Amino acid sequence: MIRSNHRVKAPSHMIVRAALGLHRLLERLARRVLTPEALVFTEVVRLARSEVLGALVALGVMDELRRPTTAAEIAGRLGLDADRLFRVLRAATQMGLVTLDRRGRFTATRIGRVLRSDHPSQSRELVRYFTSRGNRDAWSFLTHTLRTGENGFGKAHGTDVWTWFAEHPEERETFGRALMGLELGDAPFVASLFPWAEVAVICDVGGGCGVLLSEILLRNPRVAGVLVDAPAVLASAGQLLARCDVIDRVTLAPGSFFERVPPGHDAYLMKHILHDWDDTTCTRILGVVRQAMAPGAKALLVERLLDRHDTTSFAVLTDLQMMVACADGRERSREDFATLLRNSGFRPGRVFAGPTIAVIEGVAI
Ligand SMILES: C[S@@+](CC[C@H](N)C(=O)[O-])C[C@H]1O[C@@H](n2cnc3c(N)ncnc32)[C@H](O)[C@@H]1O
């Protein structure tokens, strides 16, 4: 069951920028002292790290680490092989998930604790999604994508990710919970980036479980919302909105942004929608949204900004995830978004850029 009442207090943008900068600096320093061969090895064995995370989560091992415990005790409780579990947990010490004491007992660290099933951050679901069959198989076609330009997910599964989710409800649920966890982290930043009180009704297109909409409405008591997504997604959104006590200000509108979205509102929010799609499809989605809007109404795109030659941003890796797992999605620069907006009947407006995410405004013309 999703814990929706977990609200993250966002650290200031300055602290986030400083922390990210320090992290990059330390990584650069570490790279200077290791040999290139050692670095190649370090990078390629990262695959093992994903698998360790995936196995510990899938087997519920982190739930058994509520006090210092030996691998044998956990193995006994979960019916696992004690020696192999010990070796996997020992490797997990290098990932900062657990510590190992002199008596051979493992203890979950603050990172390991977020992987427990009852932790509200849903990090466990993020691990499940990344190590799911749908995602892993798509990544296995990266060389094919580079040779042909063809999307990995489509090649692996013969369909796009959203159709796949419709046919694999368990993976869709996992993805939904993973997104909700990411949203819980992003929402306070986004809610503080833009002056939301200047709009009356926000239509959140592809709004998922409504985490961001709830956060905005909680902070802006005079603003109302409309949440558009697939019917199955909206079912869990309703519970969240009710728990956040904003449900009476929200209309749930099941539907597809390829067909129509509810008309006549003054702002259309789209967070992490366009990065799922190629330019042609983005123009199509923006065109459907534009059709619903009167001149002067705003499209508010919430996305990570990635300049072509930016090598430091976290978005460099999410760009690849979009390339592989979505329908040829990508992260984009300010100019890219401005072009998409211009091609879809909008005038590019203000850009509110935080350290990891931005609100990009387009005004309907
Ligand atoms: C990457 S998620 C972003 C969700 C949310 N805005 C966020 O930032 O967490 C994309 C969302 O688009 C929804 N979606 C996909 N295809 C859609 C369509 N044709 N019409 C409406 N929503 C759709 C998905 O169900 C999902 O909730």
Written description of the protein model:
- The chain has 365 residues and is an alpha/beta fold.
- It has three domains: 45-118, Arc Repressor Mutant, subunit A (Orthogonal Bundle); 132-159, no CATH class; 168-364, Rossmann fold (3-Layer(aba) Sandwich), CATH 3.40.50.150.
- 50% of the residues lie in helices and 14% in strands.
- The chain has 17 helices and ten strands.
- The chain has helices spanning 13-33, 36-44, 46-58, 71-78, 82-94, 110-113, 123-130, 133-139, 142-148, 152-157, 161-167, 169-193, 211-219, 231-243, 279-291, 315-325, 334-342, and strands at residues 69-70, 98-100, 105-108, 201-205, 224-229, 250-254, 267-271, 298-303, 346-353, 358-364.
- It has a seven-stranded mixed beta sheet with strand order 6-5-4-7-8-10-9.
- The longest helix is centred in the middle third of the chain and has 25 residues, at 169-193.
- The radius of gyration is 22 Å and the shape is globular.
- Residues 1-6 have low confidence and may be disordered.
- The structure holds S-adenosylmethionine (SAM).
User: Helix- and strand-based class?
Assistant: alpha/beta
Strand order of the largest sheet: 6-5-4-7-8-10-9
Q: Remind me, CATH topology of the largest domain?
A: Rossmann fold
Radius of gyration: 22 Å
Kindly report how far apart the N and C termini lie: 43 Å
Mean pLDDT: 93
Proportion of helical residues: 40-55%
Can you tell me the CATH architecture of the largest domain? 3-Layer(aba) Sandwich
C-alpha geometry: globular
